Prior knowledge:
By secondary structure, the protein is α/β, with parallel strands linked by helices.
Amino acid sequence: xxxxxxxxxxxxxxxxxxxxxxxxxxxxxxxxxxxxxxxxxxxxxxxxxxxxxxxxxxxxxxxxxxxxxxxxxxxxxxxxxxxxxxxxxxxxxxxxxxxxxxxxxxxxxxxxxxxxxxxxxxxxxxxxxxxxxxxxxxxxxxxxxxxxxxxxxxxxxxxxxxx
Length: 163
């Protein structure tokens, strides 16, 4: 991707000055960043391009069952990504990302529209906004598997904001 961006912009410097994309990476909850993802994070930061580190922690399965515990885990992954990115290249644009939810422990089905998941998303927005005030952009988004228009879908659309 970096090579394609350089070809479109004409040079690495031009791509860094006017990025065409952000590299989105994913940690493997709980609290694990694979070597492949870590290498991609480091390469993206060395290139000076925007990056995000998703987490997708599911309360009760890959994260603590409580909202507070899941938020601590989510923030820990984000802080590791931020520290690594800035250690590689100070000023690297990194997006504080909160893609998380809860799970039905009987079926192991992920759901981001339960009351606890929505609370976690709201808190993720607050954390992202705090990070934005300290100089880091943030993105928080919810998803749901059912179709149709209803209160929960509207609520998720409101919560899916750029901080």
